[in-house]
């Protein structure tokens, strides 16, 4: 961004962004994961940096490159992601974009689970993962601006409003991830910004443009929050 002459409203501000999926081990060779390319979260980290913020990206396992101008911390599981995020507090801004696995195996097997000829498949017992956004939204060192996402396939707005409340976020970026939208893994996204003020419907655009507009929105709302 050397030739980028945009104003830098986030100069002197720190931001934490989570991105990508998490992997929850079942045994040494198997894991539970969500679908997530990391494209949207990585782009948001880069755009916040372009506005002058000092950004740390906490990324789950993805195949895309670390964004430039951002410090990237690589983690695997939800618990590792939470640890990394908490270590980065205090911060001015937190944007939780990661598709965190809601559950992990109740006990990770130390050895590869083997098939037993003639026997039923092994049961997979699950336990709930910590909610990183909710933890940050209610933290003693809560960032001034906390932003979450809501990935939904139905009742988008109602579910996003419930998440806004439950997680203590300033706003939720709601996106419809139904398979026919192509959002998961694709390059385009259509989001709605859900806050206490209401719902703002953005047109469909590429994920880079969503990220740029979101970074601007974050800068604007941070100004308002501080003023
Ligand atoms: N999130 C998180 N930690 C979790 C689960 C979700 O930080 N363990 C964050 C996501 O990064 C996102 C927001 O919470 O910013 C909403 O995630 P989503 O999966 O849509 O919501 P959940 O609360 O997990 O509810 P559900 O999956 O049942 O819709
Ligand atoms: Ca979830």
From TrEMBL:
CTP binds at residues 102, 112, 130-133, 149, 163, 167. It comes from the Bacteria. Residues 15-227 are annotated as: Phosphopantothenate--cysteine ligase. Residues 10-220 form the DNA/pantothenate metabolism flavoprotein C-terminal domain. Catalyzes two sequential steps in the biosynthesis of coenzyme A. In the first step cysteine is conjugated to 4'-phosphopantothenate to form 4-phosphopantothenoylcysteine. In the second step the latter compound is decarboxylated to form 4'-phosphopantotheine. In the C-terminal section; belongs to the PPC synthetase family. In the N-terminal section; belongs to the HFCD (homo-oligomeric flavin containing Cys decarboxylase) superfamily. This is Coenzyme A biosynthesis bifunctional protein CoaBC. It comes from Hoeflea poritis. The chain holds residues 238 to 464 of 464 of the full protein.
